[in-house]
Amino acid sequence: MNIYQTGGYQVKASAVDQVKRAVKEFVRYVQENEPDTKMYLAWQQRSDATRFLHFFIFEDAAAQARHGQSEAVKRFEAAYSAELVGAEVEFTDYELISGKPTGEQWAQFGDKR
User: Fold this and answer.
1) pLDDT at 112
2) Considering the entire predicted model, what is its pTM?
3) How far apart are CA 84 and CA 113, in angstroms?
4) Residue 63 banded pLDDT, cuts 50, 70, 90
5) Domain span holding position 62
6) Which among 10, 19, 29, 69 counts the fewest CB atoms within 10 Å?
């Protein structure tokens, strides 16, 4: 069963460029090494460049665990954790209700519509 999750955080203004570089490197790793991470998107808020939101879809709990235990996650966390403003990253789980991906994407998401 797919796992839909977001991770949101805010960093110091002085760290925005550093964090963006780390995000790009990390997402490249996910693209190349995590076939069971079906989607990983990283967004930067337009109205406040210090805020980031990551959206991910894992094939199942095992894929989520592999992702979370990877050395790449540890490197990424090291790049942003000292730069966080306020609380830690806020992770939120979701259920897919509806959407507009292509037919092929629906199949990848495991949705039976």
Assistant:
1) 46
2) 0.85
3) 39
4) very high
5) 3-96
6) 69
